[in-house]
Amino acid sequence: MNRQFRRQQVRRDLSRRQFLGRSAAFAGAVALGPTILAACGGDDDDDASAGGRSLHVDNWPLYLDEESAALFEEQTGISLTYTTVVNDNNEYFATIQPSLSNGDKVEADIFVLTGWMAKRLIDLGWVDELPLADVPNASNLVDSLVNPAWDPTGKFSLPWQSGLTGIAYNRAAAGRELTSVEDLFDPEFSGKIGFLLEMNDSLGLVLRADGVDPESVTFEQAGPAFDRIEAAVSDGQIRQFTGNDYQDDLIAGNFVACVSWSGDVGQLALDEPDLAFVIPDEGGMIWSDTMLMPKGGENVEAAAEWMNFCYDPVNAARIAAYVGFLSPVTGVQEELRKSEETAAMADSEVMFPPASADVVAFNPDLDEEERAQFDDRWAEITTS
Q1: If residue 318 lies in a helix (H) or strand (E), which one and from where to where?
Q2: What share of the chain is helix, strand, coil (3-state, %, to 5)?
Q3: Residues facing residue 384 across a β-bridge
Q4: Cβ-based burial of 255 (10 A; exposed 0-12, middle 13-18, buried ≥19)
Q5: Tens digit of pLDDT for each residue in 195-216?
Q6: Which of 119, 173, 181, 214 could form a disulfide with 209 if both were Cys (CB 3.0 to 4.6 A apart)?
Q7: pLDDT tens string 316-351
Q8: How far apart (Å, rounded) are the C-alpha atoms in residues 150 and 363?
Q9: Parallel, antiparallel, or unpaired: how do β-strands 257-261 and 193-196 relate?
Q10: Rounded CA gap, 57 and 163, in Å?
Q11: Confidence label for 165 from pLDDT (cuts 50, 70 and 90)
């Protein structure tokens, strides 16, 4: 069966077998400190065959292996269009807002966005309830992700992957180990630092460096962190704010260091061994990306089959081995241990953080007005 599996990042090809063959080195180097991690990419496949059942999924780059996409099609007979068009939550929101605000449908049957954006879409009434009765494997969801803050009834979302926010850097270019948020403000790296457009991640790390809790921060408390980032933009310390495309700047050498997401750097480092990821001394951030169904979607049955497929522990383990993030499915660690190729990954502290890991979520209880204050201040900084 033909499959439309479009990848938009430029990456050297790396087969899953090659990736898994290096998993021992990957896991052995991964820890919640300065580490070297891993990378892979994919090519376009042929267009999806016409007719029959179909499903369109919009997701972030480097978030699914092609083997799982092919197996899903083979096992279900559903023609899958899988795109990696989500580069930043707000950017993607801007593409779907005109249609959904007008009551029109969007192309995707499922899109994957971060928890705080999921809450926004749920509050706006722009997503449908999930067909949970047709997703029996949803019972495999890890306890900590049941009825999350952004979806307290658990009716509208299922987590795709969780991850950690820390610092990615090029060890050769930096000339030393980077272990602190303060390294991002070191004049030695002026013009070579990247921050994420995602406010929760970038601001969250600086808040932690300032000793402010991102889980309960007020706009007033966040003021010094906002000012510090703004000053770093003004004096040229920060080169650019990016979405998921920060990966290209790391590889090209435009960034010596940047705010980043754990699993992405893990994949990139397979081809670029000087790349490293670290949870800074001041602590890191943790987040979850979640599957949502936009209002009025027609392929509900196919969406349920996709979610059920991905929540099977065997399939979830295959996906986790490729993406290197925190799987939302129980039993994944045990599945990884069953294969010599992936057993070492089961000990990865980035994929399975210990309870002692110093990571928190950006999850203050903000109303719309307060959230707008944060967003407006962030927009002033990132567009200056």
Answers
A1: helix 313-323
A2: 40, 20, 40
A3: none
A4: buried
A5: 999 999 999 999 999 999 999 9
A6: 181
A7: 999 999 999 999 999 999 999 999 999 999 998 889
A8: 9
A9: parallel
A10: 20
A11: very high
Q: Which residue has the tokens 């939550």?
A: 89
- DSSP annotation of 244 reads T
Q: Which residues contact 269 (CB under 8 A, 6 or more apart)?
A: 36, 37, 38, 39, 275, 276, 277
Amino acid at 352: F
CA–CA gap between residue 333 and residue 339 (Å, rounded): 11
Which of helix, strand or coil describes residue 119? helix
For residues 63 and 161, is the Cβ–Cβ distance under 8 A? yes
| Res 254 pLDDT > 50 | yes
Q: By three-state DSSP, how is residue 158 classified?
A: strand
* pLDDT score of 34: 31
Amino acid at 208: R
**C-beta atoms surrounding 205 within 10 Å:** 28
Cβ contacts of residue 122 below 8 Å, gap of 6+? 150, 151, 156, 157
Q: Which residue has the tokens 């005109």?
A: 98
CB of 145 within 8 A of CB of 159? yes
Residue 143, classified by CB atoms within 10 Å of its CB into exposed (0-12), middle (13-18) or buried (19+), is exposed
Mean pLDDT within 46-53: 53
Read off the pTM.
0.79
Distance, in Å, from the CA atom of 63 to the CA atom of 41, rounded to the nearest integer, reads: 10
What's the number of CA atoms in the CB half-sphere (13 Å) around residue 212?
21
Q: What pLDDT was estimated at residue 364? A: 84
Per-residue DSSP letter, 130: P
Closest CA to 264 of 330, 209, 196: 196
Of 89-93, 126-130, 137-141, 179-183, minimum mean pLDDT range: 89-93
User: Do 158 and 290 contact (CB within 8 A), yes or no?
Assistant: yes
Residue 176: Cβ within 10 Å count: 10
pLDDT range class, residue 299, cuts 50, 70, 90: very high
pLDDT at 22: 39
Spacing of C-alpha 113 from chain mean position: 8
Q: Over range 262-290, report the average pLDDT.
A: 89
The pLDDT-based confidence of 43 (bands split at 50, 70, 90) is: very low
Rounded Cα distance between 251 and 90, Å, is 24
* Eight-state DSSP code of residue 151: -
